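Q: Structure tokens for this one, please.
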Amino acid sequence: MTAKKPKKILIVDDESDVTDLLAYHLKAKGFQVEAINNPNGSIGLARTFLPDLVILDIMMPELNGIQICRMLRADSNLKRVPVIFLTAKAEENDRIQGLEIGADDYLSKPFSTKELVLRVQSILRRVNEGVPAEPQRLQIGQIVLDVDRHEARVNDQPLDLTATEFKLLQLLMERRGRVQTREHLLINVWNYDTEIETRTVDTHVRRLREKLGLEADWIETIRGVGYRMAERKVAACSS
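A: Here is the predicted structure, written as tokens:
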């Protein structure tokens, strides 16, 4: 009988004593663990490690847990990975914000490592019970995206998109109704290349709209912030 592969846990916390403690206890329970104290490297590590669950601190410098969770939820390969927030912030509004952006659980510091391990096991057990996978076919109006085949169509006609345009359109469709800042798009479409300016996002959105033709009005400009895929088609689009 082939042994089951251990579940993979990613811990992101800027305090090394916290990551060391959690890694020790989780490894003792048979989990494969990766820990990082630099939040800026967390998304890159998540994309290579492909964890089954992420334990994420909120209060971190430069890039906080809320921002990282949003990036995870916007990534097609990571969006369904369960997230447990681990933070010193215990106010109700913080718990609500964490859950609203897609966190699965919330534990306040100081915490019991035993309780945390039990919550990890409980969430993974629930996931393993078998939730049907989300279809990889997205449709908004006459725009259809087949993610598995990497094909796009508008009004049933093939749409010739570059790899970047496809990824940009996919992210906007998956996050329909939610504003995506230019910085957020840079991180998730261009992998946060510091040489790329935010106006590059505007250029790609303009080209994408040109290719979408009459369906371009689904993409809304939120002035001074970024873009979103509308809940309902608007009358006209602005560049």
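A few notes: The chain has a mean pLDDT of 84. The longest helix spans residues 113-128.
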